[in-house]
Amino acid sequence: MASSALTSVGRHREAADRLRLHLVVLTAFFVATLPLVNPLVHGDGVGYYAYLRAPLVQHNLRFEEDWRRANPGFVESRLDSNNQVKPDQYTDTGHIDNLFTIGPAMLWTPFFTLAHMTVLLADRFGANIPADGFSLPYRALVAFGTAFYGFCGLLLSYLLARKFVDPSWALLATVGIWMGSALPVYMYFNPFWSHAHSAFVVALFLWYWDRTRPNRTLRQWVVLGLISGLLVDVYFVNGVFLLIPLVESIHGFVNSLRLKDGAAALNRFGVNLVYLATFSIAILPTLITRKIIFGGMLRFGAYTALPWNWHAPYWLSVLFSSDHGMLTWTPLLGFALLGLFLSCPGGMRIKAYLGLATGAFYYVISSYPYWDGMSSYGNRFFVSLTPVFVFGLAVLLERVGGLFRSLRLAYATEVLALGLFVLWNLAFIFQWGTHMISVRGNISWNSMVHQQIFDVPPRIVHSVETYLTRRGEMMQHIEQEDIEQQKLDGKQGQ
């Protein structure tokens, strides 16, 4: 008996030591990648950042100054020759048609507040830094905030996966998805977009949902409701993950009725009402800002004005098109999805829930008229599914690893395989980021593959050095190339 207890204690200690080691490894990797963070507000990021800067600096939702200070590609169709916002950019309420979500601004607020306090303090000592939300301290700290949230999302994804597979495979899957998907682009290169935040809130939701099932306390239902609201505040399509507690609750009701346990059914009904109430409170920032800007709490701007086709006509293109198809641009994700179909002792129920949410997410994007994300690396919408990909890839790695006679050989082989996927992905990101390939529309695979092999290697060292030392100059050059390409595409389309 005493021997068994000592063995159990030893196992717990070993597991704790292993967890600490893995967290140190992930943290060290994150710190090493921080120089890649790009504090440049551009593109969609202008709209997301405006929801942070305008309320906290101007104390209103007037975004004119944000539009005027935006990058040339963003303002070209939105400002007139006198640098004034065009009339067609305003809604019926007299506000700029900012259709982006407020959730990222909510998550950025602590970092922005710290930057503002730092700037004000520095200015008291003569620094003369503009306290307007546009200067570098604000952008740098907010961009760091995005990378931090992306990292937290990866940590939570790892913690979820390690519960069902060996932690070593969960660690390897986390690093693989981190660098083998579209996440690096929106965690480092475009940190003012919402996708890294989506990876975080979805991971937080799934981790907490799993941690508190099957018998949540009332307090845990309240917390889950708040997280669920934040999920939607950050990115509307993330709302499909609410199918998970919905189906879970329906299943619980059916079981209670089958067992004729009226008290259990009544209790579940009560906690579900509490969950819905806290969810409603958590989405108030979205509803209020939509009311102010668009004139109605359920009016979402262009998202509701576009002709969605709920027959999901783009279901193949979303996956396989050369125009930002998810599996053609980031093939590692296909293997991650395969893992959801493999056996996982103790994880069959969670796999079913993850599969449900993933299928619903895929259906919604397949129905969206701009399913390709326009200027996107891969299909950026699926960055939200980062924790699902980590889970699926971890299951696959463990199953494949079991085919080897030696665990060490299995791990070395899979590290090598993942390394090749990561190198391919990073080289592809380099091509996309430096406009070696078109950032919009279809690309030529022959040209892309040729450049991957022959053109990227000699260029990448110099370009990375430029990115780290003369980033502003490099970004201006890329921006100008993008504007010229759009003009050329416009002429060819006439």
List the defining traits of the structure above.
globular, single chain, mainly alpha, 494 residues
What's a concise summary of this model?
This protein has 494 residues and is mainly alpha-helical.
Explain what this protein looks like in three dimensions.
By secondary structure, this protein is mainly alpha-helical. Helices cover 69% and strands 0% of the residues. The chain has 22 helices and no strands. The chain has helices spanning 2-33, 44-58, 64-68, 72-75, 103-124, 136-162, 167-180, 183-189, 195-212, 218-234, 243-258, 262-282, 284-294, 302-305, 317-320, 326-329, 332-339, 348-367, 386-401, 407-433, 445-469, 471-493. Helix 17 crosses helix 19 (386-401) and helix 20 packs across helix 21 (445-469). The mean pLDDT is 93.
Q: How do the strands and helices of this protein lay out in sequence?
A:
Elements: H1 2-33, H2 44-58, H3 64-68, H4 72-75, H5 103-124, H6 136-162, H7 167-180, H8 183-189, H9 195-212, H10 218-234, H11 243-258, H12 262-282, H13 284-294, H14 302-305, H15 317-320, H16 326-329, H17 332-339, H18 348-367, H19 386-401, H20 407-433, H21 445-469, H22 471-493
Helix pairs in contact: 1-7, 2-5, 5-6, 6-7, 6-9, 6-19, 7-19, 7-20, 9-10, 10-12, 11-12, 17-19, 20-21, 21-22
